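[Meeting: bench + compute handoff]

Bench side (C.D.) handed over the final construct sequence. Compute side (W.E.) agreed to return the predicted structure before the next meeting so the bench team could plan truncations. Sequence as handed over:
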Amino acid sequence: MKFTCEKALLQSAISTSSRAVSPKSSIPALEGILLEAGSELRLTGYNLETGIRTVVPADIQAKGSLVLSARLFGEIIRKLPDDTVIFTAENYMVNIKCGMSEFNILGTDPEEFPELPTVEYQNSFVITQERLKAMIGQTLFAVSDNESRPIHTGSLFEVDENGLTVVSVDGYRLALRHEPIDKKEGEASFSFVVPGAALSEVEKICSQVDEPASVTQGARHVMFKVGDTMLVARRLEGEFLAYRQAVPRNNPIHIEGDTRALLSSIDRVSLIISDKLKSPLRCIFEENLLKISTKTAIGDARDECPVSGDGKGLEIGFNNKYLMDALKAAPADRVRLELSTGVSPCVILPDDGGDNFLYMVLPVRLKAGE
């Protein structure tokens, strides 16, 4: 096996594929990257849950395949000078040359590396990388980390004639993003749940570009193809929350506000809240004004934020982090908060009446005198 490749390209491919490598595994090969030099140079990382395969432009002089320690191979390439890397392997003995540097390391048998699962095609759609990246990033924070409901440790992807809807829920909040898609094949509407860990990697692989990303739903797996990189993840099975019924939409109180101004006010008041000193935000919605306060063992803080609409003096408590996560993710300069009572959820929507996002945050019970 022999090839030459630009150091920067190889380093980027190692960094991408090693995201799916197990840091520690009972199968030593899973701590490595599978290199395959055939008609093209392919690098694969796989941890039995998620697999990432990427193709690198390289000049291949002799074909072959082997597995190299992801950590060691990555460190060597990262620290090499910026030049062309000459890679030669014979009987698992690998020679890496670049400029004045040279390394000889031992690889392992590629037969020990488990094969990536095949995705039996069911349905697929195409969406721009930029849009997919934004949709994942703006819903991933609400994915649950509670393993007692495994289905909610992922995001629901729903595709129909109106486009793609991505929903995450963790029992305290809900995040929803909706965008049109470029192309769809298969059933008129379909849905599947992708693990949060895999989506976190998809978000990193996608770039802020108008290039297409294709998503294929298989019987047990889902495949994301972005440029020269492919990610395969096991689908989560189970009954996802019926989110349409969970979101109250006939709320009598509508408050509109500037997203940044709301965030700044909450951020200031949150300065005296910490992991050790937890306390809810006490929010009082008055006419054209939102009063926010909190009290912890080290003191108290108050702030006011101008808003539009009459909150009729509604008093409601929130976890500061949950409210801030939703406002940070909302892709709009102005938002509409829909409220009903002090114990019903707050729904955050676009101010312009659009439907491309919806966030819901459950309130926290306030104790008298807090």
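W.E. noted at the follow-up: The mean pLDDT is 94. C.D. will use this when planning the next construct.
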